[in-house]
Amino acid sequence: MTRGKNMGKTTRMRRKIGCTNVKRGFTLIELLIVIAVISILISIALPRFKGMQDEGNIAKAKGELRTLQTAVESYYIHNSTTYPAALSDVTSATPQIVSSTPTDPFSSTSAAYQYLRGGTNNKFYVIYSVGLSNGTASIASDAVTQTNANVIYVSNAGTDTAP
Questions:
Q1: What are the pLDDT digits (tens) for 23-61?
Q2: How far is it, in rounded angstroms, from Cα 152 to Cα 60?
Q3: What is the DSSP pairing of strand 137-140 with strand 124-129?
Q4: What pLDDT is attached to residue 128?
Q5: How many CB atoms lie within 10 A of CB 126?
Q6: Which has the least CB within 10 A, 58, 121, 130, 144?
Q7: What pLDDT, in 10s, does the model give residues 50-89?
Q8: For residues 27 and 35, what is the distance between their CA atoms, to the nearest angstrom?
Q9: C-alpha to C-alpha distance for 102 and 6, rounded to whole angstroms
Q10: Which domain holds residue 147?
């Protein structure tokens, strides 16, 4: 008998719940609020991500430029104390330090790093990346000059103090 009484109560409860026309879901306003919050979070995160990409590219450029500088100095030592005419000459030098010249991570055309010789008797060189704002470097009066501070370079004529 107790079993029948309990079953009757649950049936009545089910009927009460079933009778109400409660629709479950999100309202348009709730969805708009969620979309607004997500877009605000994305707008905060994107500039930070771009800054981290730039820092990574700066570190990559500095590392590759040091490797290229080592290759140029090795070329100088093993080729009658003359620097290569072009950066691509170091890929075929003996001993071979680099097998190919890497591309500048800041170049919009995926170009290789820039290489210039100059100064007194062409005894100075500069290898540079255009940097964040497409700058250039050159050798004037046996020293490196740059068009802006964002140029990243290595040279035997001066030291890079930028980024």
A1: 678 889 999 999 999 999 999 888 888 889 899 999 999
A2: 11
A3: unpaired
A4: 95
A5: 28
A6: 121
A7: 889 899 999 999 999 999 999 999 999 998 888 999 999 9
A8: 13
A9: 80
A10: 26-155
- What's the CATH code of the domain at 109? 3.30.700.10
Is residue 1 included in any domain, yes or no?
Answer: no
**Per the structure, how many domains does the chain have?**
1
- Rg of the chain on CA atoms, in Å: 33
> Taking 60 as the threshold, does the pLDDT of residue 11 lie above it?
no
Question: pLDDT (tens digit, 9 = 90+) per residue, 119-143?
Answer: 888 899 999 999 988 889 999 888 8
pTM for the full predicted model: 0.71
Helix (H, G, I), strand (E, B) or coil at 36: helix
How many Å apart are CA 17 and CA 139, to the nearest integer?
85
Which pair of structure tokens corresponds to residue 153?
């370079």
- Is residue 2, in this structure, part of any structural domain at all? no
Beta strand segments in the chain, E: 114-118, 124-129, 137-140, 143-146, 152-155
Q: How far apart are CA 61 and CA 112, in angstroms?
A: 11
pLDDT at 25: 81
Q: 163: burial class by Cβ within 10 Å (0-12, 13-18, 19+)?
A: middle
- Compute how many other C-beta atoms are within 10 angstroms of the C-beta atom of residue 114: 18
Q: Give the HSE-up count for residue 10: Cα atoms under 13 Å, Cβ half-sphere.
A: 6
